[in-house]
Amino acid sequence: MSAKPKVVVLPSPPKLSREAATRFQRLASESIAVARRFSVALSGGSTPLALYRLLAEAPLREAIDWSRVHLFWGDERFVPLDHPDSNYGAAREAFVSRVPIPAENVHPIPTEVADPETAATQYEDTLRRFFSLSEGDIPRFDLVLLGLGPEGHTASLFPESAALDEHKRLVVATFVSKLAAWRVTLTPPVLSSARQVMFLVAGPDKAAVLRDVLEGPYDPHRLPAQLVRPPDGDLIWLVDEAAASLLSAGLKGS
Question: Topology of 6-247 in CATH?
């Protein structure tokens, strides 16, 4: 049985970011205490950037043992890592370059290779080595951070894409027709295997799609975010009041 989503409504985007940062720090401390490391797949997009900046500031910067943190990415645009559109580049500027994390603990998707398929294959190899996976195993991140696109996509899982039906590979290259661009993304089984999945959703423009994802019929080819359903983990939606404006009262209190 999949985890029931827990929806936490915050009054504003800054409050949402602060809540996410606090949860990040707490989960990092718990994971490090038990397993001596904390593995997280970061999200791109604008909403997580405020969270990332908080992680680089006191008191959170000092509260996290960065030597035990390992950063991965849930998806990436197939652009150079120093490109303005790079998810890695945005996170590096916001916090990675500002915290004492060892360089070997930062694992960007290798977009400097010749083509997206090679990048996907190499990143899958990186995951297999880091998590010591056998054939058929799925990595289990301590935390996966995700956002929600206006049409229901998450990571780079877009409506009607072949990546939505991938059950064996850990990482795939996907061409997003409406953007005329290649992306590299973790697959649904990887995203759903985390100990905790945390969606960050803010703004009135997300209200309708958030309602559809959480309360509408299950139609993941139209709303790919519905595919993320951890069978053995926590599914948390941190949303601001504007994004939550169309949710039923019962779900807001979940």
Answer: Rossmann fold (3.40.50)
